[in-house]
Automatic annotation (TrEMBL):
Domain Reverse transcriptase: 408-563
CDD domains: retropepsin_like, RT_LTR
Annotated Pfam families: RT_RNaseH_2, RVT_1
Natural source organism: Mikania micrantha
Protein name as catalogued: Reverse transcriptase domain-containing protein
Boundaries of every Reverse transcriptase/retrotransposon-derived protein RNase H-like domain copy: 627-707
Amino acid sequence: MWEVFKQVKINLPLLDAIKQVPAYAKYLKELCTQKRQPKLPKKLDVNVQVSAILSGALPPKLEDPGTPLISIQIGDFTSERALLDLGASISILPGSLYDQFDFGPLQKADTTVVLADLTPKLPRGVLTDVIVKVEDFYYPVDFLVLDYVSGIQGRQPDVILGRPFLATAHAQINCVDGTVDMTSVTENIIDSCVPCYDPIVSKDNTVEVFSVFDRLDNEHIQELMDAEKDVEVKATQEGRPPWSCHQEKIPDSWNKELKPSLEEPPELELKELPTHLKYVFLGGNKTLPVIIASDLTEEHEKALIEVLSTYKSAIGWTIADLKGISPSIVMHKIITEPEAKPFRDTQRRLNPNMREVVKKEVLKWLDAGIIFPISDSTWVSPTQTVPKKSGIQVVRGNDGEQIATRPVTGWRVCIDYRKLNAATSKDHFPLPFIDQIIERLSGQKFFCFLDGYSGYNQIAIHPDDQHKTTFTCPYGTFAFRRMPFGLCNAPATFQRCMMSIFSDMVGESLEIFMDDFSIFGSSFDKCLNQLTKVLKRCVETNLVLSWEKSHFMVREGVVLGHVISERGMEVDRAKINVISTLPPPTNVKGIRSFLGHAGFYRRFIKGFSVITKPLCNLLLKDVPFEFDDECLKSFNLLKEQLVAAPILQSPDWSLPFEIMCDASDYAVGAVLGQRVDKKPVVIYYASKTLSDAQLNYTTTEKEFIASSQLVVLKVVST
């Protein structure tokens, strides 16, 4: 507007101009206040950039700038394809590169890497404080070593640098320019050094160690020393011993690195063995013991020791030998019900003896990496110690009365997971039938009875569920990395793991019930070959067996409460001897306990239901407890039958079977047998108490019930 006014020229007399000012005043005012807008077209087209700016919309889309790869150098290794990954919380080095170059020793890694597809992966270990060179800068990095193939056809990165490295390097990734800015803090180390008070006299290139305490004033130190002398002199004058500081070193067992037995053989206590067993040693100086049969020939013993020495990494002597089964095979998950609410329980009071037991167990778990401290778990369960009890023993009271008791031999630390188990969805993986396992084992000539070393502690827990295993004790709250005892789904998980590892062997020459392995063979060579396969599979899957509970190449052994040998199956005499010395029960609980122990061997007792009828009547509702002569007779007869229980044979399917039935007024019984070399052998005893309706059956119908009961039992067991 100012330019327009500059170009306007008016030739008017002054008086005429003054007269015309009111006429032009309104027009000039509108021009000055811009009320008169210039005429513009009704439609104006603008480009995409102007439209995005005016409408406040998103900026125009750009193409993928590419993967942020940089060049790094680690010692003698140089990589042009190191990935900067903002989505990774760790830095990863492939196992193939670790095998090619000398990056230093690995440390134990108690971490499970869960990939984006929720696939768990177990690292070899961790490399700490690895110096990585990027251009002219050096950065310390911690790498997890994982087994994966790097650099396939130039598409995959060699090394993955995660967020810890990016934070250390102050990295700023510019995706538009495709550049990475890294900064580093520089410092003049000459100016930072504190001069040493004493000159270095030695000609060697050494550095003196100094600390901030060297700056203490000498006069102040002298005052403290004089004051201490005054205290000692005064105490001596008063006839008291001078004060002295008591120093006690606390063992730092938490940070102590446990070494495997193959690197540092432990000193073990060797218990006395039965005559049919003996110790042999797989290490020098009588270390790394195992238990084998004592009646083996020299040739057989040499062959067995050779196999055990080859696969001795499958045997564990201490908890440091536990490597952990790969999570790719099995991983325990704790799936809670959708409506379940987390529960935090408080710790329970423990007496000094129990506190010491808990302390030792917690330190042992920490040293082995089985547990870790945690403070923010939504599930917290209490710790409880329960007594370790031996078998039932009969002792005499003050009045000469016989009392059945189970003496305490020690204490066991347990976690009370009852509230967690109540909120957990149950796993219904089936367990094998005990009678099927016993029948397949009986009649064989050689056995290897193996047992897992803390079997549950060898299975990893899913990282998302580890906090649910948190337990509280006087020393803090801790959670399990490995599966503990007490979880409701732990048996199913362990059995599933064993079946996935040995599925091709089970039933042929191997039987598994939880962590009890039974290898059998009709000859020494067959049993040894199967043992070799099992030990090799254990080494491949990191499954560790207990040296103390594993017996190799024996002729008989106790499996699930039964004595198995070439003769067949028998009752465990140790348990029978205890039962035979029990006094008559004095209450319903004692009756139920006795029948429970005796009922475990009911297949060995002819007419079990008939014998136990008087005792079972005492368990009926609203029946007074009266242990009369008839009950005492039944009680003593049952003990006699247990002591004289016969040896049962496994069935020979090439021979015909014989069934013998018997019926009484209130029970029926049957015997399944065969004739081997014209001699009758017993395979199975069955009995059943008749119901009220079945009491009206004829004798023939009752015998048919007995035979059908026996056939059903055998069909189910086979």
